[in-house]
Amino acid sequence: MKLKSQLNNVIQDAFNKAGIEHAPMSVSEASKPEFGDYQFNGAMALSKKLGKNPREIAQSIIDHLDLSGVLTKAEIAGPGFINLWINPLWLATQAQEALADERLSISRRENPIKVVVDYSGPNMAKQMHVGHLRSTIIGDTLANLLTFLGDDVIRQNHIGDWGTQFGMLIAYLEMKGLEMKGEDGSGSLKDLEQFYKDAKGEFDANPAFANKAREYVVKIQSGDAHCLQLWQKFIDISLGHCEEVYEKLNVNLTRDDVRAESFYNDDLANVITDLQKSDKLQESNGAQCVFLEGDEVPVIVQKGDGGYLYATTDLAALRYRAKELGAKRISYVVDARQAGHFKQVFRVAKEAGFVPEYVKLEHIAFGTMMDKGGKPFKTRDGGTVKLIDLLDEAVVKARETINNKEDYTPEQIDELAKIIGIGAVKYADLAINRESNYIFNWDKMLSFEGNTSLYMQYAYARIQSIFRKFDGQISGDIIIGDELEHRLATMLLRFEDVLNRAAEDASPNQITTYLYDVVTLFMRFYEQNPMLKEGVDESTKMSRLQLADLTAKTIKQGLDSLGIRVVDRL
């Protein structure tokens, strides 16, 4: 449920009854339990507008507050804050309804929109490396979240498949007299990464070979059947590597989500023509450019030799997504170092009329994964860490954290290690502000303590163990009997507000922070409010079991939005 909306409606009703026409500011969570559940600070903001003392305004609001439903108490604090306490009976009813609903009373958007989320963007003819991790999992989380909240989400995996590198690969294949055989099309190209490096070395060292490679690019672009066949096999091999990584990461990207550069190739000339028609183009040193007011560096959309650039393709993609797909929000989950590029391309797209003004264009920027020394994450010899190797290592290390291995079959241990290891890598990344760099630390991410995936999974498993011990039928109502139960129920009902904020800001760390607060509070509840202990009366036992069940379901849904699985035993 939207708890803040409920409280804002109560405050607004008091404003109306008091004859105050100015809309109030939103309530916010209280910083300490003694300050209530929420606080309202709008009285101070209204002081100058109304020419009244903020405490006088606050008192007028309190005098007209309905304390028979959502709220049970309101007090003025400080210069004009209003501390608000939620009615325990209302809280219990809402928690009961959330528990009975498979969506935990989280509503779908009343006015859903179509959203394009562009993420992952792996390089073709190379294996994915750690630099692709953040785009892939942040983008997937945003897509998961928006889908759950009711928007029509279109996932897009924009890959570069239309350049010199493919002419280079085909030329090297023929120079070496190799063939692409086998059902997977790989033949002798088991290690496509090394094949690419060898081809690149030949390209850099041999001008004749480089010219040959460029000729093959022209053949590909002109539709030569033989070259296109080989080109497609290179793409298929590359995407096969990507799909293996996506499966390990539990990421929802498929071949159907791929929209490569070649997809927009036929529209690039139209982009140039339409920019000319809108008087946006100027020639500079033979290149066609768009000069934006306030920017010294122009946006180059066509080189002097007639070739197109990334900006040209991005403009074609933006136009397609806005006008053909009908997206009202287009989110690019790309490294922060591309901020300047996207700022310029977005401006050109809007000013040229490629994208309507009402469409939200956003660059979901993120920082870099660093090693313990604060340098970009590399192998010991300074090479790029392949993402699949990192994930495999995570599973190996997770296996070491599993206690009482004799309680599991080998197959169960394998599955458990995969869930824990992959979850640890994803959660550690998503738990920080996405725009920050972060230190990759195995010990920290695989800890049972602190804001880690394992801490969340352990809490969920502990709740499942309670129900295995209980092994009965739950009945009765939720009863808010003490402060801890009140705080836990309030926290659980904030879930929808958290998800909506995280979706709007594209900030998964808001979800992880919330989950950590929920689990930390539940652990205190678990220790101080026994459920199955002898002497606990039946109605209290049933109520506490239901609060525990709602907590588990909230943890599961929260982790699910992050693409992380839970475990029943740990």
Give descriptors for this structure.
alpha/beta, 4-stranded antiparallel β-sheet, 13 strands, Gyrase A, domain 2, 20 helices, 570 residues, 4-stranded parallel β-sheet
Integer average pLDDT: 92
Helicity, in percent?
A: 40-55%
Low-confidence stretches: 182-189
Rg from C-alpha positions? 28 Å
Categorize the overall geometry: globular
Strand line-up of the largest beta sheet: 1-2-4-3
Strand content: 5-15%
> How would a crystallographer describe the biggest sheet?
4 strands, antiparallel
> How many strands?
13
Alpha-carbon distance between the two ends: 31 Å
| Derived structural class | alpha/beta
- Total of helices: 20
Structure, described:
The chain is α/β, with parallel strands linked by helices and 570 residues long. Among the domains are: 3-86, Arginyl tRNA synthetase N-terminal domain (Gyrase A, domain 2); 164-257, no CATH class. It is built from 20 helices and 13 strands. The strands form four sheets. The chain has a four-stranded antiparallel β-sheet. Strands 6-5-10-11 form a four-stranded parallel β-sheet, with helices on both faces. β3 (71-77) and β4 form a beta hairpin. Residues 182-189 have low confidence and may be disordered.
